[in-house]
User: Fold this.
Amino acid sequence: MNPFDIPIQALLGQLLIGLVNGSFYAMLSLGLAVIFGLLGIVNFAHGALYMMGAFGAWILMDRFGLNYWYALLLVPLMIGALGVVIERIFLKRLYKLDPLYGLLLTFGLALIAEGIFRDQYGVSGQSYNVPDALQGATDLGFMVLPNYRAWVVLASLSTCLGTWFVIERTRLGATLRAATENPQMVQAFGINVPVMVMLTYGAGAALAALAGVLAAPVIQVTPLMGSNIIIVVFAVVVIGGMGSILGSVLTGLALGLIEGLTRVIYPEASNIVVFVIMAIVLVLRPAGLFGKEH
Amino acid sequence: MAPAMESVVSIRGLNAWYGESHILHGVDLDVRKGEVVTLLGRNGAGRTTTLRAMMGLTGARTGSINVNGMETIQFAPHRVARLGIGYCPEERGIFASLTAEENLMLPPRLSSSVGGEPVQAMSVAEIYAMFPNLQERAHSPGTRLSGGEQQMLAVARILRTGARLLLLDEISEGLAPVIVQKLAEVILTLKRSGYTILLVEQNFRFAAPLADRFYVMEHGKVVLEFAQAQLPAHMNTLNELLGV
Ligand SMILES: Nc1ncnc2c1ncn2[C@@H]1O[C@H](COP(=O)(O)OP(=O)(O)O)[C@@H](O)[C@H]1O
Ligand SMILES: [Mg+2]
Assistant:
């Protein structure tokens, strides 16, 4: 297909879907980067936490009749608490070991979670309705913008921006950055670093769950949704580099858009374009676009 | 031996390890309230390890470390710090991802009373009056500061918390004479306002006029202890032990 024949509507539509996916990539890679920075753990369970976020929303609706807005608040809290428990029981034993152990352990936890949800709910997937207040679409003149997608982009960008602000501009964030550099020194100043590490993992888990709740109405809620997205998110992290919060957010959004664009221009490549970019970045800039060379 | 009544720190039979390496072999040491005590020794004698063991930053420890009447040998580092100890490490520990001012504000202030005494912390204004350079560099990344500025920042940082017992590791190391002079004045000012200071030094000329008492370490043990007044009598031994 000649790229110049593409109708502008289709292009904008795909770019919007790309932006929505990019928002999820951004939220997930942000959490991964913060967790890796402080805990030195490559959190392979991140996709499972995202999946449980989406299922959490669905279960609250299905079993307890609690709507989307409750889910948006309650599910991140619950998955955040689960994250705290995981950190206390498993992860805190691994900090002195090679990072490979953390990767294997979280990978195992992800498989267990996935297995449990498969057993309970099958793989075909559940659908979750768009909340009433966000039904419908707005005609912008040049395109029709589904309200829920606009909300997802807005909500995730605000979350990312809020997280960036806390980390880069507040005292709490300064403590977190310092502990990422030298946890022993920070603890010798009287700060309870082990508790901080625990809460950080909880916050990263909550962020993944929030992404899952936001995603529930635009995808099929299935036990496999976590492993499907996490591979792409890891590619995003490799491309962006672990160095910077803003870097992982921008990389996530940009790669979502590039995927969307590829779906219009050359749909066959849309599932691999991220990995092609990853390979190129690895050759040219092994530490990633925003990473610091060591 | 019972610790002297006014001892702020009383260390008995302290052993410390890094992994398998046994570094401290039964250190005994006292620091009394308001004293400046200097820990001398050749490189590798175990002075830094002694301070790190006090903070809970080594591997395994045995023996006794009493701070303000409390046994701290089992304490995690943050609990030691909260007893009112300010630790300035040999490598200075300035954070690159924090501005100078964020570095200064990083250690939390101590709660209102420590060991039954009200905490009197230095205000940021007082700190900037003592170290005017730090105010000029407030918004630069911490590690962009010059070596001297970083050292002043590392000292200033622990004064803001209200800690009254300072552990200072080689603060004069590698600095220009005028900055070393400035740091000596700071120590004297702090001493006059009642701080208790344990100073690890390589630079004997810097430490000699400041200290009330001296300890000399060798191979992870204290081998000599004497007061300021006995300094002249010990010069020959010191020459042998330190090569000063
Ligand atoms: N992290 C460490 N791991 C293993 N050995 C160490 C470590 N740090 C210091 N040492 C060893 O402990 C001994 C004492 O070192 P240190 O306390 O730094 O001496 P000083 O401060 O008096 O120069 C030295 O032999 C040194 O090699
Ligand atoms: Mg030393």
Observations:
- Chain A touches chain B at residues 171, 174-175, 177-178, 180-182, 184-194 (CB under 8 Å).
- The domain at 3-121+136-284 of chain A is CATH 1.10.3470 (ABC transporter involved in vitamin B12 uptake, BtuC).
